[in-house]
Amino acid sequence: MTNYEIMYVLMPNLDADGIKAEIVNLNKIITDNGGKVTGSNEWGMRDLAYVIKKQTKGYYVVAQVSCEPKAINEFDRIVRLDPKVLRFLITVAHK
Predict the structure, then answer these.
(1) Interatomic CA distance for residues 16 and 54, integer angstroms
(2) pLDDT digit string (tens) for 35-93?
(3) Which residues are 54's β-sheet partners?
(4) What is the 3-state secondary structure (H, E, C) of 18-38?
(5) Cβ pair 23, 40 in contact under 8 A
(6) Could you tell me the sign of the dihedral formed by the alpha carbons of 18, 24, 26, 28, in that order?
(7) Residues 6+ apart with CB under 8 A from 56
(8) Torsion of CA 59, 38, 93, 87, to 10 degrees
(9) Which listed residue, 30, 41, 43, 83, has the most CB atoms within 10 A of its CB?
C-alpha cells in the first residue's frame, strides 16, 4: 500500500452537519476500496487565494490515507463530480 495525503476544500455554504457528512462520505470512498484513513486534520474555514466557482472562502481538510492506486483513482473520479468540493489535491506522502 502507498501512503497519500489528500487536501480538499469544501463549499463554504455547508453547515457543520453537512461538513461532517461530506468528510465521512469522502473517507468512505477510500475505505470501500480497501484503503484506510490514517489521519485527518480539519483546518476549518479559510480565505481562498483566488475566487473558485464564485466562492472566496472554503473549508479545508487534509487527510492521510494508505491505499492502493485503484482507490485513489476512484476517489479522484468521484470527487471531480462532487459539487460540494471546490478543489482537491492528492500527493504521495514520503515517510
Answers:
(1) 21
(2) 999 999 999 999 999 999 999 999 999 999 999 999 999 999 999 999 999 999 999 98
(3) none
(4) HHHHHHHHHHHHHHHCCCEEE
(5) yes
(6) negative
(7) 47, 48
(8) -20
(9) 30
